[in-house]
Amino acid sequence: MTAVITGLGVVAPTGVGAADHWRATLAGELAVRPVESFDASGYATQLAGQIADFDVAEHVPGRLAIQTDRWTWLAFAATAMALADAGYDPAAHDPYATSVILGSGSGGNEFGQREIQALWSRGRKAVGVYQSIAWFYAASTGQLAIHHGTKGPCGVLVADAASGLDSLGWAERAIRRGTGAVLAGGTEAPIAPYALTAQMAGGKLSTATDPRAGYKPFDRAAAGHVPGEGGAVLLVEDEQAVRARSGPAGYATLAGYAATHDAHHYRETAPDGRQYARAIELAVQHAGLEPSDIDMVLADGAGRPDADAAEAAALRAVFGPFGVPVTAPQGLAGRLLAGGSALNVATALLAMRAGVIPPVGNLDDPDPAYGLDLVRAPRERPLRAVLVAARGHGGFNSALVLRGRPPHGTDGPATGGR
């Protein structure tokens, strides 16, 4: 069975909706700015990628909005966009034909913050009943499944920034096992006082106050990342099921996926990038391709000299020095945990459809020591096979290969768009 991505929904600092996100990404519009949801002036990290003008009432029923956190609101919005994009209505299918499998990195932060404050200021009776579920990593998966009436295999993958790719890997597995359609990807909303404090404790956040200096993947001035909110949800379908419902040809197939672990340190990634390179090699092999077949890499782009150097070493080990165009547009939006890798997949799909590689976000002075073909401006190129890679806190490595789709009814080669 072939797993095809037929719909995508984007809710990100760079735009609500795929069209706005793609336009801002190609234009290099920086969406990082000082934190607005609370007074962060006393925090070492004061910048974040934030979604402007998100109206929860437009995307979430009032009763559910009260019961859920902002990260779930964002998932509801992205899911509705993905379903509309694919022309897919779960209610029109057997309930067991549709699954929800999302990635998560932090859970319901704002809701949890509010309830913790109520606990310590007014006592346990002030804590609402929905605290027991709204903060939980699987809250968005469960709420979406209930709302759309889906009863196929559901789950949540928790591997920090690698989670979004992992959810798609598991979606492909569910398709192979007989599920017709899977909602995958992930969103995050980690910009609240205790959530920011927890991220700062990892020692990987930027302390810059100028947004242009905040998050700079592969730049000589890279000094940590800034957090961000949002992500993407994608509809993955069995190819035969898509044809049976006369659905769209799809953006791309999920051709290869692999995940490894550094087994190095409970908080740090391995400095040599060896297991990261192995995940990339395995994903390419799973897709039945050679490294030379890959037309673009959308990299993890951690934005720290040590992590960027390790990633560069891994990419050189697989593709050779300057062997493949490399981009990391997320420098414009911040690091969105699980939502970030899901958003990178959406960006890769849009790039394949347009035949344009977007530039590395917020890159001014690339370090030539990395030996990478870093994309500095939009670059037109047919994108038949693309690799998206991600690393998670504590040694998680994931890689996903996407292959372009020809339109229905054609026998020509895939062109990377529908």
Distance between the termini: 20 Å
Could you tell me the radius of gyration in angstroms? Answer: 20 Å
Instruction: Report strand %.
Output: 15-25%
Identify the overall geometry: globular
* Low-confidence region ranges: 408-418
Fraction of residues in helix: 25-40%
Q: H/E order of the elements?
A: EEHEEHHHEHHHEHEHEHEHEHEHEEEEE
The overall pLDDT average reads: 94
Largest sheet: 12 strands, mixed
Q: How many beta strands in the DSSP annotation?
A: 16
Going by helix content, strand content and strand pairing, the class is alpha/beta
How many helices? The count is 13
Describe this structure in a few short sentences.
Helix content is 33%, strand content 20%. It has 418 residues and is α/β, with parallel strands linked by helices.
Architecture blueprint of SSEs:
Elements: E1 3-12, E2 15-16, H1 18-27, E3 32-34, E4 47-49, H2 56-59, H3 62-67, H4 70-86, E5 98-103, H5 109-122, H6 131-134, H7 139-148, E6 155-157, H8 163-176, E7 181-188, H9 193-201, E8 230-238, H10 239-244, E9 252-261, H11 274-286, E10 296-298, H12 305-319, E11 325-327, H13 338-354, E12 356-357, E13 373-374, E14 379-380, E15 385-392, E16 396-404
Parallel strand pairs: 5-6, 5-7, 10-11, 10-15, 11-13
Antiparallel strand pairs: 1-2, 1-8, 1-9, 3-4, 7-8, 9-16, 12-14, 15-16
